[in-house]
Design goal:
Elements (H helix, E strand, L loop, with lengths): L10 H11 L6 E3 L8 E4 L8 E8 L16 E7 L5 H11 L5 E6 L2 H16 L4 E6 L16 H14 L4 H13 L1 E9 L16 E4 L10 E4 L3 H14 L10 E7 L5 H11 L8 E8 L8 E9 L2 H8 L10 E3 L23 H16 L1 H11 L4 H14 L9 H15 L2 H16 L4 H16 L9 H12 L4 H14 L16 H4 L5 H15 L1
Parallel strand pairs: 3-4, 3-5, 5-6, 10-11
Antiparallel strand pairs: 1-2, 2-4, 7-8, 7-12, 8-9, 10-12, 11-13
Length: 544
């Protein structure tokens, strides 16, 4: 995978300075200790409150620097990629932010973090600072483990600690509150691909048909490999694993769920994962949700994690309290989607259905051709566009054939109007709406149906802005409908469409459509997918 970086050694310092230049970091500053001391802190920490400090290896952004701000962390100590920060850097953060109220260190349960933060706490105490440490070990991937890893639940600990600090709680009370909260957390992760910590030549350990359940945040192997499945099934596996870890005493407890993006899952898929979770048995026990959002990531890992936290009044209040860091997504009730009634819409089938067996056969045959060519047209479109041309045409074909029993097949103009209505309801992309425009205008035309289709094409060209020679589906449609309008046979119409589609392969560049944004060298010798779809449709009808 290609990456944006200069050198691996400078990734962290360059990224932190870029973060501080952004709006998200304009209330923050850093200690002047690069490269060994990378501490991001509030510009004006309130030393009358307990200082809340966390940190660890970088590569988990927005954790930890992204959670520095009022209501969460006072400071974050950032190590190299996946490496704990050094002891002196942690001590520097404590000294820079801690007053008489003391300091709470929130530490993920990894050996390096425990050792470095633990020794830093001892040194700070020797310098007269009150320091307490809370270890977060929320991972349930390895049941019975005496050292569960600290993963996304760490961010919840930041929020609990930050809230208590802003309330002016003393260090002892704050420490007890966060420790109790940590005991109520549990996390499971699932990934389709592991991460690459900027190691050249590194290959994924997972095959195309594998996913991984119960993984950490440093690229280490998961607890088990599982078969690749649908999003719904994978979410069920993760949710069932999480629910099975709950103690019997928590059977009637309400929970908040954190849906954490581990790195590269697109937002549309993260939202889909939350919808899938809402249909699991565990969802009945979840009253609130945090996310979906990237909270504790693992560079470019293609995966997600679920974190549960048992709620009581104090924890709910802490999670709902406002916080300054933009990376904190807030908490919301996990409810049902709000739905309002559709407004009255025009009837898509304004004319009574009438039979025409021959025309019905033509429509069925045309649909078969478009569906059979779906994959081939998608592959062709993927070379110069977004790869969905075949699906657009096939989807429209399926919708029309599904409505065959409702079509006015005996009246061509009524039929064209109805097809336009179906396309406006169901067909996506520019092709769908352009054909809807063509059939709508053809249905209104006073001319016989052959000439009416040509009139519809003229209106399509006016609305779409393309004309013959612009390297679009017009290059196949225009000559085909010209032959049709003058009484040509179906084989002649198909031949005209084929010649038009073939002509697009020699056009230097497109002047309309998505291919207009593609360099000429990439479209040369590749037919326009829309024109090719028209040609294949008509050739299939002629052959049948």
């Amino acid at each position: 995978m290609k990456r944006f970086f200069n050198t691996r050694d400078t990734i962290v310092t360059e990224a932190l300075d870029g973060f501080l230049r952004s709006a998200a970091g304009n209330h923050l500053c850093r200690l002047d200790g690069y490269p060994d001391t990378c501490v991001i802190m509030q510009r004006e920490p309130d030393r009358a409150q307990v200082s809340v400090i966390s940190g660890g290896g970088s590569g988990h952004e927005p954790a930890h620097a992204g959670f520095v701000g009022r209501g969460m962390l006072t400071a974050a100590v950032c190590g190299a990629l996946f490496a704990s920060p050094c002891v002196d850097a942690i001590v520097a953060a404590i000294l820079a932010t801690t007053g008489e109220a003391g300091c709470l260190l929130v530490v993920k349960n990894y050996t390096g973090d425990r050792l470095n933060f633990g020794l830093a706490a001892e040194r700070a105490r020797a310098l007269g600072k009150q320091v307490e440490v809370v270890i977060v070990g929320d991972d349930i991937a390895l049941p019975g483990s005496t050292t569960p890893r600290g993963v996304a639940g760490t961010v919840l600990a930041h929020k609990l600690a930050g809230h208590g600090a802003t309330q002016g709680w003393p260090l002892a009370r704050l420490t007890e509150f966060v420790r109790d909260g940590v005991k109520r957390m549990r996390t499971i992760g699932l990934a389709l691909e592991d991460c690459n910590p900027y190691e050249s030549g590194r290959a994924s350990r997972l095959a195309a048909d594998q996913a991984e359940l119960g993984l950490g945040i440093h690229g280490e192997p998961g607890a088990q490999r599982i078969a690749m499945a649908s999003a719904r099934d994978l979410v069920c596996i993760a949710a069932d694993t999480l629910e099975a870890s709950l103690p019997a005493a928590a059977r009637n407890t309400r929970f908040a769920l954190v849906l954490n993006n581990l790195g590269t899952v697109p937002e549309v898929e993260m939202a889909l994962l939350l919808e899938a979770f809402s249909h699991t048995p565990l969802a009945r026990r979840v009253s609130h949700v945090i996310g979906p959002a990237p909270l504790m990531t693992a560079l470019d890992m293609n995966g997600f994690s679920f974190t549960l936290i048992e709620l009581d009044e104090a924890i709910t209040t802490a999670l709902e309290a406002p916080a300054q860091p933009r990376a904190w997504p807030g908490i919301a009730p996990l409810g049902s989607p709000a739905v309002v009634p559709m407004p009255p819409m025009p009837d898509a089938f304004p004319y009574p259905a009438t039979p025409n067996p021959a025309l019905r056969h033509v429509i069925e045959r045309g649909a078969e051709v478009l569906v059979a060519n779906e994959a081939a047209l998608n592959e062709l479109d993927g070379r110069i566009g977004d790869g969905d041309a075949g699906s657009t045409f096939a989807g429209a074909a399926r919708e029309i054939t599904a409505a065959l029993d409702r079509l006015p097949l005996a009246d061509p103009h009524h039929l064209m109007t109805t097809i336009s209505n179906i396309l406006t309801q169901h067909a996506g992309g520019s092709s769908g709406v352009l054909f809807a425009i063509m059939f709508s205008a053809a249905g209104r035309s006073p001319e016989p149906w052959r000439q009416a289709l040509r009139d519809g094409l003229e209106h399509m060209m006016e609305c779409g802005g393309a004309k013959p020679g612009d390297r679009t589906m017009i290059d196949a449609l225009y000559p085909a409908l010209e032959v049709l309008a003058t009484g040509g046979s179906l084989p002649d119409v198909a031949l005209a469409a084929r010649q038009g589609a073939q002509s697009t392969t020699t056009m230097e560049s497109a002047r309309a459509g998505r291919a207009a944004y593609v360099p000429s060298a990439q479209v040369r010798d590749v037919p326009d997918p829309g024109a090719e779809a028209v040609a294949r449709l008509l050739e299939g009808l002629a052959a049948g």
